[in-house]
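Tutorial, part two.
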Amino acid sequence: MHEEDPGDRTDGDLEPAPSALPESFEPESLPSTPLSAAAPSRPARTLAFVSIVVAGVCGGLIGFAFTDLQCDDGCTALAGLGGLVGAVVAAVGVAIVAVLVLRAMDEWQTVKDTEPRNHPARRRPQQPPRSQGDAS
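Running the prediction step on this input gives:
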């Protein structure tokens, strides 16, 4: 008698294991956790956008000037290309930093909002009382 080798099966013969099938559940029965707003504040996003634009302009000017100084016979196309490359590199670099800063701000706010009010990290340290003999 010929036994079927598992390697001889085609994709059409495969069936999911019964344990792999999802169980039915009610969404109301799932635990809920408070989520922070995914977007940073409007002033923070505006400042990040403005800083990216300023960096792009500065990078473009530096790239244009650097390339223009290398040419003696007024190669404007090459200087324009240098300006474009400088603008893109500077804008991308500042955009990466801006995204990291915005994410860190959001994480800090989330941690601050989820800690209980009486958590030791939220308390101000108590300074020891001054004695009358301290001259400071």
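The CA atoms of residues 28 and 34 lie 15 Å apart. In part three we will examine how such features are distributed along the chain.
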